[in-house]
Amino acid sequence: MTRLLTIADAVAAHARLTPRKVGARDSRRELDYAAWNERARRLAAGLLDGGLVKGDRVGVLAYNCLEWMEIYVGLARAGLVAVPINFRLTAPEVAYILEHAEAAAVIAGPEFTALIDGIRGEFPLPAGRCVVIGEAPAGWVAYEALIAGGDPARSFDPVTQDDTCALMYTSGTTGRPKGAIRSHGGSSLIAYATALEMGFTREDKGLLVMPLCHANSLYFGTTFIHLGATCVIDDRRSFDAEALVATLARDKVTFTSLVPTHYIMVLALPPEVKRRYDVSSVGKLLVSSAPVRKDTKLAILEYFRNGKLYELYGSTEHGWVTLLRPHEQIDKLGSVGREWAGSGAIRLLDEQGNEVPDGEVGELYSRTAYVFDGYWKNPEKTAEAFRGDWCSVGDMARRDADGYIWLVDRKSNMIITGGENVYPSEVESVIGAHPAVKDVAVIGVPHAKWGETVQAVVVLHDGQAASADALRAWCRERLAGFKCPTVVTFVADADMPRTATGKILHRLLRQRLAA
């Protein structure tokens, strides 16, 4: 039987081969592979000794920090399932994920203990199942105490490639997030494909800037773990362009993945600041989540003079699907490239399931060796995502005569703002619940810094009044900040573009507002 290594197996292997090599670090401390392996084993033992059993789900809610790397590896060793939660979500959003995942335990940063305490009634946990990274308040177990009490020599049940390693909750097109089931085997295959396609080796140092609850950082982090390379964690609470380039220079980072907003902020640094730091070690750069202008790409390559630029398209469900390689960046500007190594193939299908000719728009399906295993407790959405072995997340695209893929509409009008995915239907459901609102459409509009920003177009009930500030405040109480509209526009009901059946035409609305 074929058996792929888990990340816990990989860390254990490197603990034997290169025990003193730094495997992971953040601004506070670093771990060599020997220490990483021992602490992960202790964490696994402590969690199982606390009553968890293989297959239990563990919610993880924290800012970027080195502990994420220990947690992912420790959960894999114990056969527990990570449920990474975006730290920007509100209490009701976090409560839904933990309840839906049937979380048996929670590991949280100290900033989030009050939030968890406030929603504990919605998902009762036995004593000792809430672990905090730092000093423990009442009702919590200290992370370091749990590790200190765990026996690294304990035996663990085997974990196979078919076992689940993570439930990755993606923003829901119907207002609720869905838990994408990721297996250990799929995680390993993504790592191998990434190393093969992008030429990573054990000598690389990857700076993980994107939140460690996101698939981007998890997939690249997994790649470096399998190779025995070094993961550098950007643990700042907010993006700091100068601090980023300082880290690149200090740690001689060879790779990082950023969204266009990050690159724009780096390039906007004063020349004297940029000259202060030597970023010549950076050999590979990735940009994802939004299109990049030609002048921005050229400026990136001018500043990172030894860097090769890549651009990809993928999803939590698919894994990587397409890649625009360094030599294609300008000639195929706006394209997301062609198939990624290991992605199998791509099909663009019409509503009847027939392939569309080159140049025409169809729904993008891919067949990858590392596709997700379905949505947790949601067989209907799982069935909708697949046509046989082919998977789709609803993105519309066209293919040119050279085989390059061009995205036309992302996930039913999804908005990407500063690298975060926002689904209009989720924001619309919140705004639509305001008593003064008769109807609402949420769209993404271009923004120089964030790529896109959220705009709400609102129709009020006759005789009702509500200000833009009031609606934004209403949203902030119920949604993560990045989902809240920065622009609120009021229109008459007759001015909202609709189909014959009354459905709002988001694309036409965007065109009208742009005009």
UniProtKB/TrEMBL annotation:
<keyword id="KW-0436">Ligase</keyword>
<dbReference type="InterPro" id="IPR045851">
    <property type="entry name" value="AMP-bd_C_sf"/>
</dbReference>
<feature type="domain" description="AMP-binding enzyme C-terminal">
    <location>
        <begin position="426"/>
        <end position="503"/>
    </location>
</feature>
<dbReference type="GO" id="GO:0006631">
    <property type="term" value="P:fatty acid metabolic process"/>
</dbReference>
<dbReference type="Pfam" id="PF13193">
    <property type="entry name" value="AMP-binding_C"/>
</dbReference>
<dbReference type="Pfam" id="PF00501">
    <property type="entry name" value="AMP-binding"/>
</dbReference>
<dbReference type="GO" id="GO:0031956">
    <property type="term" value="F:medium-chain fatty acid-CoA ligase activity"/>
</dbReference>
<protein>
    <submittedName>
        <fullName>Long-chain fatty acid--CoA ligase</fullName>
    </submittedName>
</protein>
<feature type="domain" description="AMP-dependent synthetase/ligase">
    <location>
        <begin position="13"/>
        <end position="376"/>
    </location>
</feature>
<dbReference type="InterPro" id="IPR042099">
    <property type="entry name" value="ANL_N_sf"/>
</dbReference>
<dbReference type="InterPro" id="IPR000873">
    <property type="entry name" value="AMP-dep_synth/lig_dom"/>
</dbReference>
<dbReference type="InterPro" id="IPR025110">
    <property type="entry name" value="AMP-bd_C"/>
</dbReference>
<dbReference type="InterPro" id="IPR020845">
    <property type="entry name" value="AMP-binding_CS"/>
</dbReference>
<comment type="similarity">
    <text>Belongs to the ATP-dependent AMP-binding enzyme family.</text>
</comment>
